[in-house]
Amino acid sequence: MTLPPSGEQFEIRRGKQRATIVEVGGGIREYEVGGRPVLDPYPVDAMCDGARGNVLVPWPNRLGDGRYRFDGVDHQVALTEPEKNNAIHGLLRWRSWRPAEQTPSRVVVATRLHPMMGYPFSLEVSVAYELDDAGLSVATTATNTGATRCPYGCGQHPYLSPGTGLIDACTVELDARTRILTDEKRQLPTGREPVAGTPFDFSRGKPLGNERVDFAFTDLARDDGGRAWVRLLAPDGRRAELWVDEHYPILELYTGDTLDPERRRHGLGAEPMTCPPNAFQSGDALVRLEPGQSLTTTWGVQLT
Predict the structure, then answer these.
(1) How many helices and strands, by DSSP H and E, does the chain display?
(2) 3-state secondary structure (DSSP) of residue 60
(3) pLDDT in tens, 168-215
(4) Where does residue 162 fall: left (phi above 0), alpha (psi -120 to 50 degrees), or beta otherwise?
(5) Boundaries of every domain in the chain
(6) Is the Cβ–Cβ distance between 90 and 277 less than 8 Å?
(7) Which residue intervals of 28-175 are DSSP H helices?
(8) pTM for this one?
(9) DSSP 3-state of 64
(10) pLDDT, tens digit, for every residue of 138-168?
(11) What is the pLDDT of residues 78-100, one digit of tens each?
(12) Distance from C-alpha of 201 to C-alpha of 188, rounded to nearest angstrom
């Protein structure tokens, strides 16, 4: 049997909702409600592009030169963004994940990260995707199964969909007070600035137009349940809404301008991140998992 490039497909359904999780990378390939995309998909006969739906473990975003120092030891991982001399989005994007549990509306996929060159630590990682009446929720759990503590961060890379067409005609809402600045060449952090009075203030909702965005935002406003939200209001009057729990202090927005021409600006990357870019070097918000310790982080998405 010939499998698709993204491997085995795990479909879950609830009412009008349908989502497909994939073996390769353990990510989400599509999520729709009543046939209307909520997350911008990629075709079943194509490889994942633009990290679409990928699980980003054990670090999200970029690691400069692929180098870091942890507990007094220097490490070097492979440069997976060689044109910028970075390692990007962790180590699990192209690994096979196995189904650990599945019901009609829920699937849990899991993988094991063995010690390797540059990351000599052991992690058990699972991601639970579940549909309920509100929408899709995604819970990522990592457990340090090694004998020493390890550095850890996580994220995911969904793209909110405008339904049809481009995101240029949409309005974006993200109530965040601070933007993490990056250099143009390598997109590594150079500082932070308040968004008030800048083109990157989306706190009250702002038409996107042709604005190019590829930045992480922090100091997120949260509702009474501790959730922070990104909302994409589309021309059809529907809103694709993504929320993150308090374990995610950072949300990256990405308008897709560096994707292949036919894929650009068809979705808004709205990426939950537990730590900023280059956290393995800076230590900023980096989690230090002790042996046997687990961490679960949760985000979700819905259509209103």
Answers:
(1) 1, 27
(2) coil
(3) 999 999 999 999 999 999 999 999 999 999 999 999 999 999 999 999
(4) alpha
(5) 9-303
(6) no
(7) none
(8) 0.96
(9) strand
(10) 999 999 999 999 999 999 999 999 999 999 9
(11) 999 999 999 999 999 999 999 99
(12) 21
Measured CA to CA, the distance from residue 76 to residue 44 in angstroms comes to: 34
Distance of CA 201 to the CA centre of its chain: 21
Closest CA to 149 of 123, 114, 113, 112: 123
Q: Does domain 9-303 have CATH number 2.70.98.10?
A: yes
Residue of 63, 57, 5, 42 lying closest to 284 (CA atoms): 63
CA–CA separation, 231 vs 220, rounded Å?
Answer: 13
- Which SS3 state, helix, strand or coil, does residue 82 take? helix
106 in Cβ contact with 128 (< 8 Å): yes
CA distance 204 to 258: 27
Rounded Cα distance between 217 and 248, Å, is 11
Closest C-alpha to 60, from 283, 277, 296: 277
